[in-house]
Amino acid sequence: MSASPSSTYRDFPGRRWLVVVLRAAHLAGVVGVGAGLLAGGQGVADGFLILMVASGVAMAALDAWSNALWLKEFAGLSLLVKFVLIGIFVVDEAARPALFWLILVFSVVFAHAPASFRHRRVSRN
Description:
- About 65% of the residues lie in helices and about 0% in strands.
- The chain is an all-alpha fold.
- It is globular and about 50 Å long.
């Protein structure tokens, strides 16, 4: 499948910069959460967790709005899996260190996988 935008793709002026700002905020949140875990505590600073989750949800919502088929692609479905893992992360303090690394590696693999894989549709419908 081609990675080029389909006829259902929506855009607006400034969208690219909005994504850049959201991604920067998201990475700041990820670094803050990771730093809290690496500092030896199970606890995570709520501000960094909120920044990470809110910016991630905003990027996902923007992707879903921009491309109506996104949730039928591996890229969109991988985000749903990640949201489930983050939900477990939020409620299970003991599992946070392992889940942090699992989510981080999972995210990097999907973010940097070839577009032909990320944008492959799970179903033909």
